[in-house]
Amino acid sequence: MKTNKFSKLFYAAMTALLMTGCNADDYYGQPQPDNNNSRSLTIEVTTSDVSGSRASYSTGGGTAKETFVAGDEIGVYGMNGSTLIANNVKFTLNAEGHWMPESDVTYSHEYTYYAYYPYNSSATLTSNSCSFDSSSAPVTEDLEGNPYDDTNDKFASFITHWPIAVDQSDVENFEASDLLAARGVNQSVPVVRFTMAHKMAMAQLVPSYNKWYYSYDQSTALTMGIIFTGNIPYEMDGNFYYIMRPGTNTTVGGQTMQASSGKFYYKRLETITGSYELQYSTNGGSTYSTTKPSWLNVSEKDGEDYTTLLVSFNPTTSGTVVSTTLPSGTVSDYDLSLHDVNGNSCSRTTANSYMIHKGGTYKLPLVYGNAIKNGTTNTPAFSPSGSGADFLSPFLNSSGQEITDPWIKNNSETPNNAVLLWQDANRIITAVGVSGDYLTFTVPESAPCGNAVVAIRNSSNQVLWSWHIWACPDWYTSAANTTISNAGYDYEVAPVNLGWVGSFTKNTYSENSCVVKMIPTSGTPLIFTVNLPQAEEYTPTSYGYCPYYQWGRKDPEQPSTGNANSAHAVYDVNGNAGTALTHSSSSVSIATTIRNPTIHYYNSSNYGPYASNQYNLWDAYETTVTSSGNYAGYTVKTIYDPCPPGYCVPRGNLYYYMTNGGTNTGNATWSGSYYMRTWTKHFPAIHFPAAGFRYYSSGTSLSYVTSNGYCWSSSAYSDASARYLDLYSSYFIWYYYYRAFGFSVRPVVEK
Predict the structure, then answer these.
(1) Do 398 and 594 contact (CB within 8 A), yes or no?
(2) Among 162, 301, 600, 604, which residue's Cβ finds the most Cβ atoms within 10 Å?
(3) Distances, alpha carbon 612 to alpha carbons 603, 718, 746, in Å
(4) Could you give the 3-state DSSP secondary structure of residue 619?
């Protein structure tokens, strides 16, 4: 029997495998006797779109056997008048394209030959009657009253009695049920040509429009599967096919059909429009019950013109409130560059932001951003290959010099002392200093969660570089990232915005699976399988806050209070209240912004923070912008990227997808109590805070906190603007605006 090489084969135009150009003496290399009437039979076999072939009735959704392939087997009969001279002799197509007989068949131009496919060893004849399936009576006419008997076919009884599998879900049973047959045409050489035509009818059954959704994947309705009993069809490309005996009533999936020989029969399965019962199986469909598993919710979805079910999940455990202070316990001399965000040891990887989850003493190497990755120099991060007015390479340090080495000291800059510039909770960091090639700092045990900015300075107290320290619960890193796939790329989205501080509740989901059966009062039963992955989902229980970033800059700007257009309090290392942000409308260089991480810059000539704007400040190799803003692929992280090790600002392709190509999307819910819009299309859901923004031309001014949220992508839109995700209480959109705005950042895993 054939495999899937054949399984897409039935009902389109047929292709011949003709064997021509040979003479009587050397046909296929077989020796030929002198007597023309006693030579061995040689055959040609082809399929063709002829009357009676199913291809004549194709609607474009069907398929046909397009060609015979090596290993195919046919059966051949020979008749001398009413006398059988060859009874079901098997011919096999070899690799050279020749049909080789199991035993010789005598050729005579006076004889008549018949062939069929696929070969069946039981298909021997007694006179004109086949020896199998004799329980079926011959059919004399079809449903329309047309004569069934083929005057060119002496084996109507043979065709009528061809065995058809009841269960055709297996491809071998399906293909074995389909019969092609032909009367041979004798050629001038001892060759008989068979042009095969389909002798069985076939039905294509199109699935109903009944759909179901995961609660977190509501953009696309998924078609339910179909439960077949009795005659079971073969599934291919989402449709179902069943080989039928011509002229007889055949019921498949509750649909009764009849077609004459060779016909293609199209039928849409009935949809469920009336009442139904749901049954559930937690053992893979072995047994069903009307009792729903406790972790599963199934309800009808409104607004559809067909029955649609909405599936959601209940957690195994819920209500665990996550603390907003660091866990107890301390670490000592902890090198942040030698540990990943989960605390596992790793080869040195540096960044502009580091996450801490306990009190203790810490150190970070005096390296520009992520200029070291996995223990080696990460040259593309500061010296990417490329050119053009909008392409920066090499990147620049605080002196305006081109960076040639990861270490600050190796670029004509001499670190001298360290300072805490600001922190948004009192006593996150209580001491800061320099020890050799490291900046060091101290965090008290059970310190509050929050954000701090520390810097290394030269002997003139000029800032050479600065880093964001994010004190946060360890669940920020242990919680599952939400994977979103688009255009062949997988984006693993972090559970919170960069620098987020706020309370959450943890819900734990245990891995489960359930088969749901939908049984209508009338119509075809439907089925679908729900798989729940093992996951921890964190849902906000109150409002929170996060810092802001100007596009292309690495340093965070002072956050809001989270519930108003007012700045969050900040403190110095001694606990004194201070000011974390001032504003300047000067046209400045990248070097100036590095030296002044607490100043919001605005250049009125290009609406950015710099005197000139490049495309690749957050994505090393971005040299152009696309008209749609859909810059696909993964960000190549630079030394100006603000994210922790292993994370980066996402390319625009992520938000392009989340907003359905830049248009309004409604795959979300809104909470007016904690000012979050939750994107529910994937699991775990993604919570985006309505953090508002810092206005581009007056950076100390906050707007739209509690009503709108904005998250930068790494993709530029123009010399003046960049792409971002914009959320309102009712929808998300994909847009662009001036780079000088202070927006939030949602990190994704670096690839």
Answers:
(1) yes
(2) 600
(3) 9, 12, 25
(4) coil
Which of 127-164 are b and which e, b meaning 16 or more Cβ less than 10 Å from the residue's Cβ?
eeebeeeeeeeebeebeeeeebebeebbbbbbbbbbeb
Query: Taking a C-beta distance cutoff of 8 angstroms, is the pair 496, 475 a contact?
Result: no
**Structural tokens at position 359:** 């009190």
Confidence of residue 42 (pLDDT cuts 50, 70, 90): confident
Tell me whether residue 271 is exposed, middle or buried, using C-beta atoms within 10 angstroms of its C-beta: 0 to 12, 13 to 18, 19 or more. middle
Tokens of 561: 């209070």
Buried b (16+ CB within 10 A) or exposed e, 659-697: bbebeebebbeebeebbbbbbbbbbbbbbbbbbbbbbbe
The DSSP code sequence of 12-54 is S----B---S--TTTGGG----S-GGGEEPEEEEEE---TT-G
**Cα–Cα distance measured from residue 725 to residue 738, given in angstroms and rounded to the nearest whole number:** 13
Please answer whether residues 556 and 468 qualify as being in contact, where contact means their C-beta atoms are separated by less than 8 angstroms.
Answer: yes
331-335, 476-480, 652-656: least confident range = 476-480
DSSP state of 471: E
629-655 residue pLDDT tens: 667 889 999 999 999 999 999 999 899
Task: Enter the tokens of residue 642.
Answer: 């603000």
pTM of the model: 0.70
DSSP 452-463: EEEEEE-TT--E
Residue 381, helix vs strand vs coil: helix
Q: In 678-749, where does DSSP find H-type helix?
A: none
Cα separation, 479 vs 406, in Å, equals 31
Q: What is the 3-state secondary structure (H, E, C) of 322-354?
A: ECCECCCCEEEEEEHHHECCCCCECCCCCCCEE
Tokens 């909470």 — which residue? 671
- Helices (H) then strands (E): counts for the chain: 5, 57
Q: Minimal CA–CA distance to 177: which of 192, 191, 167, 189?
A: 167
Q: Is residue 249 over pLDDT 60?
A: yes
Tokens of 621: 């190799």
**Residue 691 DSSP code:** -
Token readout for 87 is 């009874």
| Choice among 229-243, 470-484, 614-628, 678-692 with the minimum mean pLDDT | 470-484
